[in-house]
What does this fold into?
Amino acid sequence: MDKVWRIGLTGGIGSGKSTAAHVLAQLGAAVIDADAVARSVTAPGGPAMAPLRAAFGDAVIDAQGGMDRQRMRELAFSDAKAKAQLEAIVHPLVKAAIDGQAQSALDAGARVLVFDIPLLVESGRWRERVDGVLVIDCSEDTQIARVQARNGWPRAQILAVIQAQATRAQRQAAADWLILNEGLGLDVFEAAVAQLARQWGLPAPARDLA
It folds into this structure.
C-alpha cells in the first residue's frame, strides 16, 4: 500500500498559507482546516457553546448564539487565564473533529493529508502527529501589507496578531520544507508548492492552477 503522508502546514498571518492549502487541495490532497473546524465548534449550536457560556458568560456570545470571535480574541490576548480556559474548552473538541475528518478522508482513499494549522508551532502538540511540517514564510513588512490590503486592519491590530504568533525563526526551525513567499508572483508561488507536493506523490498540475 502506498504511504499515507501527513503534512502539517503553517505560516504567519499574511504569509500565503491559505493559498498553499488551496493549491494542495487542487492537486488531490485532503486539506483539513483547523480554523474552519474551530469556527464550526464555536458556531451557533456548536459543541463548545454551552461550556463557553458557562465559563465566560453572555459577553462572548454574539447575536446569533455563536462565539463572538472578536470579543473572545481581545479577552484571550489580554488575559492569560481566559486564554487557557478557552483552549481547554475548544482544543479537545477541535482535535476530535480533525481526527474525524482525517479518518473520513482516509476511508475515501486519500493518500496525502494536509493539516492546515495556523498555530502549529505554538501549540507544541502537532510535531508527533505529522510526517513533516511545511512552513510558508515572508517578512513582517510583507505580512502587514498583505493583511492591510486583504482585511483593511490597522497596523497595530496586525502587529498584535504577529506578536502573539511564533517568530519567523521559530517557524523556520520547525520546518521540514520551507517556501519563502517574498516577492513571488502568484504563478511562481503556486508552482513552488506544486513542485514540492510531488515529493508526497501528488501529481503535477495538468493545467494552470486557478
Observations:
- The mean pLDDT is 92.
